[in-house]
Amino acid sequence: MNTGIYLRKSRAEELSDSTEKTLKRHKDTLLAFAKQCNLTILETYEEVISGENLYTRTEMLRLLSDVEIGKLDAVLCMDIDRLGRGSMSQQGVILETFKSANVKIVTPRKTYDLNNEIDEEYTEFQTFFARRELKTIKRRMRQGINKSLKDGGYISNAPYGYQSCRIGKLPSLKIVEAEAEFVKLIFDMYANQGCGCHVIAEKLNLLGAIPKRGAKFSRTTVKAIIQNEVYTGKVVWNKRRHRKPDDKNEKYWSTLNPESEWIKADGLHPAIIDIEMFERAKETLSGRYHPPYFSGKLTNQLAGILTCAKCGGKMMRREFKNSGMIYLICPTSGCVKMTSFSAVEKQVLASIKQQLEELKIEVATPVQSYDSLIEKAILSTKKEIDILQTQKEKLYDFLEQGVYTLEVFSERTSTIDEKIKKLYSSLEQLYIEIESKNQVKVDDVCKKVDNVFNAYENATIDQKNRLLKAIVKNVTYYKDKQWPAEKFILHITLKDI
Fold this sequence. Notes:
The protein is of the alpha/beta class. 48% of the residues lie in helices and 16% in strands. The radius of gyration is 38 Å and the shape is elongated.
């Protein structure tokens, strides 16, 4: 009798033996049984997968195909539930395929002929209990998973920067130092340096970093790292609901669950990023426009810089293929009127240059107005010095009048001189603070802006974008629907001012 051996072990099953040992033991048992019963083994179908979903089991699908074409007379397996524990409809597909082809199911305990009414009923009875057992196993697994998560365990595949380990009886993570340095670089470049996900990915690839899955970093990989709270020492579970296809023609899909359904706990694993850095990156992410796809080349030097003054959305570059014109548009439909992209870029540069000239004038002009608190402190310190100077002059009078001895005079003069010295030191620090606040800082900004303009003209689009982000904190754009093409308003704030 031409026979095929079907072997399956679920990853969710008992872990007393490794998968390889279990499958080898089953295979040896079935081969010995086949020899004893004089069965001719034509094919072996072996897979490690849950029996819940038929259409994700490639070996079972191959087996059913061979059954349909009449290649096999029987299928040998350890038990009937090895064939599947899925829904009634999917189990019906398996059993009906065997029944139609008149293929027997052979196990070491019993041979099932589905065209025999008693065997058919017994098979249906067995598969019913297999489904019930699967539901029980899944419920217990969910309870165990939830308990592990609430206790700080981490049960998923280790993300980049970590590797799996155990802390006590719980699964957890430990830091991979070489990868953790790249994780820190990702957050620093994104939250502090204004770099986009694609730029960061290119930098990582240049430095030789290799992600857990895939040959190189992409903007999607970088974005996923920035959004992952595991790097702050947290464990988050049940963020998404996944649905596997019930039919081979359906697609796999997932959707985000409400935050109230998430399981969030303090993990046992150490953090790579502090919570302040993560929140900064999160805030930056929420304020940026992330296109649904990336062609691999940045085309907008103003990307992530301009914000709509009306709705707060990030302005986008849009090229109209029919006319060939390039415009700056708001992502919110019907919000503000669009403007020629080149006109906006020109105005951004002109406005920055104007602010630069004003800053240079400010640096060259003596400081006329001080911070009110510092000014009050200076006046108060000067007043104290004057009072002490007056007290010191009176000491001379008391010495001449014979009220104080020379010893007393020297002691009290020394005390007053020490107080005056400390006050002069405090006064000097106040002036230094004013100088740094009103001149040195502005001077540094001027130099930084000058350097940007010197490099801007010959830079690539990607470099121009980074240059602008280095000096520009925020640019808001507004244009009324009734305004002519050349009229719009920009408000530019430079960094560090």
